[in-house]
Design goal:
By secondary structure, the protein is of the alpha+beta class. One of its GO terms (biological process) is regulation of DNA-templated transcription. InterPro entries: ArsR-like_HTH, RecG_C_sf, Schlafen_AlbA_2_dom, Schlafen_AlbA_2_dom_sf, WH-like_DNA-bd_sf, WH_DNA-bd_sf.
Length: 492
């Protein structure tokens, strides 16, 4: 939806408005983030959007005629997802053409769940200026959130008291990661109001919220019986196989998240060497650590905690299946997943971000797909047909029989070249195809090469190694940010 240029012109004319901030700066990210945060908090309770206008003088409202580039608009849009403004506000970014010149405009909708923070601080509009919220401002915003909070994790856990919280985990493990040290130093509030400001305590009922119990509870299952992860390893390819190993990850998430991270890295990943050439090996894994962990974090973040059923983390000979109770939520549905996301547990989602277990929102599934493809696992399979549950399948990295036979032939060719290094090297058909793709796109990634050639990661690595060894290509820069430099042609 286009931003109404008449509204923008009116706000430029009214230089005392608390719904607009004007600036001629194009790279002051902190200033932009603070303004977006203040508009989202809507302390005056206008119920109308606020506008950050870039390219107009703050004192006069006069448009100065900036060149509004696509890069500027992309940088402004990235403020929403860079993790510094939390929870994420609803906003749109556009170039608006006015009679006196162009401006870049960020339209920010008032959040139904304030307070919104930028780098741990709450910013609000105070007349025509912005500032950090005081205690009374924050109380008003918290009351506004409580009056509209609908998510289960934000509801009060009425049977619980402050004694049911592991206070040391909150004070020493979570708070220092949620707020800068100088903010904590100046915070004189008691523990209940500190927890309330983060959604972990409800002062109206003098009890922790469900999120408080889930994150820091001494005995989580006493209040939420299904709040644990059940891991089972079956022998074979079905649940009828013998159980080789099982484990129950139970307790508060401040402890369980780190246990899961270590477990995936040491037990599930299964690093092993494979030959790349006669003289070289490459370490590959059955299941990439980051991708598997991300799928588990998604199940923790999006499950329904009022269910008595745990998250099922089942491992078979050929795959991993992760199932959580609670299907797609809110705006997400089978037609738009995974491009559209919504949060069933907004407070827990924010807590996972604070602790570093999720990064930028709305990118997790895409990165999981890339990591699995690069490792040879293939695409993750999402089962959206279960209604009240959500299941994802992660296949074990493997090669099909055709690839295995081709690799055997490649090994034989490599052995011959090693025995007779003076013999002329000629590219096989798979090598020619890969080389052609590298020539066409010097920035092409392993994931894209795998998509276009339908080859496994390990086989593709062998082909790339052969091209490097015979001087056809050189890799410049890192695996993620570098590019391919072509040194030979097919006729050389």
């Amino acid at each position: 939806m286009a931003i109404d240029k008449n509204i923008i012109q009116s706000l430029l004319n009214d230089i005392e408005s608390d719904r607009a901030e004007r600036t001629i700066s194009v790279n002051n990210t902190d200033k932009f983030g603070q303004a977006i945060c203040a508009f989202a908090n809507d302390l005056p309770n206008h119920g109308k959007p606020g506008y950050l206008i870039i390219g107009a003088d703050d004192k006069t409202g006069k448009v100065i005629g900036l060149n509004i580039t696509d890069e500027l608009l992309k940088n402004l849009s990235a403020i929403r997802t860079d993790g510094n403004v939390q929870p994420q506000p609803s906003m749109i970014v556009q170039k608006v053409e006015l009679a006196d010149g162009d401006v870049a405009v960020v339209e920010v909708q008032p959040s139904p769940f304030p307070p919104i923070r930028y780098k741990g601080q709450i910013w609000v509009r105070i007349g025509p200026r912005k500032g950090v919220a005081n205690e009374q401002d924050e109380k008003i915003l918290i009351e506004k959130r409580n009056s509209q909070a609908l998510t289960y994790d934000a509801l009060p856990c009425l049977r619980a008291t402050l004694d049911d919280i592991d206070m040391q985990l909150f004070l020493n493990g979570y708070l220092p990661k949620a707020f800068p040290a100088d903010v904590l130093k100046d915070d004189k509030r008691d523990i209940k109001h500190q927890m309330q400001s983060l959604g972990f305590f409800d002062t109206r009922f003098d009890c922790p919220t469900n999120a408080g119990i889930i994150m820091f509870g001494n005995n989580v299952e006493r209040f939420l019986p299904g709040a644990y992860i059940q891991y089972v390893k079956f022998r074979g390819k079905g649940k009828g196989g013998e159980v080789e190993r099982e484990y129950k990850f139970s307790g508060n998430l401040m402890k369980v998240l780190y246990q899961l991270d270590t477990f995936v890295d040491t037990t599930i990943t299964n690093r092993r060497p494979v030959p790349v050439s006669v003289l070289r090996e490459e370490t590959i894994v059955d299941y990439p650590h980051w991708a598997t962990r991300e799928l588990l974090m998604n199940s923790i973040c999006h499950r329904t905690y009022d269910s008595n059923g745990p998250i099922q983390f089942y491992q078979y000979d050929d795959r991993i299946e992760i199932l959580n109770h609670g299907g797609l939520y809110g705006k997400a549905n089978a037609d738009n997943f995974p491009n559209v996301n919504d949060y069933r547990n907004t407070i827990i989602a924010e807590a996972l971000r604070v602790l570093g277990f999720v990064n930028r929102f709305s990118r997790g599934v895409q990165r999981v797909e890339n990591d699995l493809l690069e490792n040879g696992n293939g695409q993750p399979e999402f089962d959206l047909s279960l209604g009240t549950a959500f299941k994802v399948i992660e296949r074990k990295a493997h090669m099909d029989e055709t690839e295995k036979e081709t690799e055997k032939e490649t090994e034989k060719e490599t052995e011959k070249e090693t025995e007779n290094p003076s013999s002329k090297f000629s590219l096989s058909e798979p090598q020619r195809k890969v080389f052609h793709l590298l020539c066409m796109n010097s920035d092409i990634t392993y994931a894209e090469l795998m998509r276009q050639t339908n080859l496994s990661r390990s086989y593709l690595s062998r082909i790339i190694s052969a091209l490097k060894e015979h001087g056809y290509v050189v890799r410049k820069g890192s695996d993620r940010a570098g590019n391919w430099e072509i040194r030979k042609s097919l006729t050389d």
